[in-house]
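Worked problem 6 (solution included).
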Amino acid sequence: MTLTTHATLGAVIGKLAGNPVLAFILAFCSHLLIDMVPHGDTGLSDNFRIHKKNQKLAVAYVAVDAIVALAFVLLIANTRDIDHLRNFTWGIIGGVLPDFLVGLYDLTKTPLLRWFYRVHFFFHDFFVKRRGEVPLYYAILAQVVFIAYLQTKL
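Solution. The predicted structure is:
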């Protein structure tokens, strides 16, 4: 999933959660669960991590994804009256943190994050390895529709 999808879902969870700790935990867990849906990036991820091919393309994809997510979150934050800003913020942080932890592991290979890396990809690859991947174009289109729906809940 794109960071924008995770951030938007985290924001909605933050709005619905009763406190920032709950918002963070639920959004963090939602990241793992929603990543189970095939979303077109397994080939890009495998090429980067396993085959060491197309690394510049993968880095460019992540950079654009992060910029779009940041812009979208700022747009939402500046155009909506957010009642519980702390919950909103911690929901977004919980929603995107798993991907940042995986990226940190990719960069450092620290044993402290290896377990989480494995857990993340257990969920990420759960259906993809059993049923196959969907084309990235269709996955991004589906995520745009999902994000549009989610932002109506903010």
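Discussion: The longest helix spans residues 55-79.
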